[in-house]
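in:
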């Protein structure tokens, strides 16, 4: 009987097959990780290129389609002066969400949470200069804005819970199962959560990050109980 290293020829071949399959599996796993890394680093590079482009285009930026703003000035002046410039560009109206997005986009703040806190603090310190139109919308006192109309007939969304709590609820119900943002949003809608945002999937990613859910792949999140519960206890 022919033997190889103490094994029969058939046993040796079977051992080689098992070894080849194991190497194939490791190669597939490495390839999957490599594909994820390619996407992750590609997204990161795109973000950096976009940030660099924004820094180069500091001449003027359109705000809400009304007037041009000198973006460079926002890095040199107080937040109140910046908000007044935004209101001047919007006929005296300050929409907090728009201002937060603009100031974050201009890299005045590192993230939306920091920008939102600063904007509301500034509004509080200058409340005598502003009229509150409705939550999140203010008008500079003494300014009339006939062109700006609020849709008072827009129906209340009447969500059963806040957007952030909804993201947390869906991830918590999924336990250890990772969910892609489209699936998270689908399940949120199933429990009655609606959004007027043009990009609800972007908000899903943002809120998942805010509650410190574990990011296991691009746009894919898993519940982390301790961190999420700590975040949800914040105001």
């Amino acid at each position: 009987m022919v033997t190889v290293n103490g094994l029969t020829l058939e046993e040796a071949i079977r051992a080689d097959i098992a070894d080849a399959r194991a190497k194939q599996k490791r190669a597939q796993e490495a390839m999957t990780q490599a594909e994820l890394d390619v996407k992750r680093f590609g997204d990161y590079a795109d973000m950096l290129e976009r940030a660099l482009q924004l820094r180069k285009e500091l001449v003027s930026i359109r705000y809400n389609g009304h007037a041009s703003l000198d973006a460079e000035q926002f890095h040199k002046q107080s937040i109140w002066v910046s908000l007044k410039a935004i209101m001047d560009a919007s006929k005296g109206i300050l929409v907090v969400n728009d201002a937060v997005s603009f100031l974050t986009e201009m890299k005045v703040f590192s993230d939306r949470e920091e920008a939102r806190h600063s904007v509301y603090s500034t509004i509080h310190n200058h409340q005598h200069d502003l009229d509150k139109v409705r939550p999140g919308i203010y008008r500079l006192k003494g300014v009339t804005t006939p062109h700006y109309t609020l849709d008072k007939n827009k129906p209340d969304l009447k969500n059963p819970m806040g957007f952030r709590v909804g993201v947390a609820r869906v991830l918590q119900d999924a336990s250890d199962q990772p969910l892609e943002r489209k699936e998270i949003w689908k399940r949120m809608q199933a429990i009655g959560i609606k959004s007027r945002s043009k990009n609800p999937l972007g908000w899903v990613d943002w809120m998942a990050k805010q509650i410190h859910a574990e990011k296991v792949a691009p746009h894919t999140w898993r519940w982390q109980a301790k961190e999420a519960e700590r975040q949800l206890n914040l105001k």
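note: The chain is about 50% helix and 15% strand.
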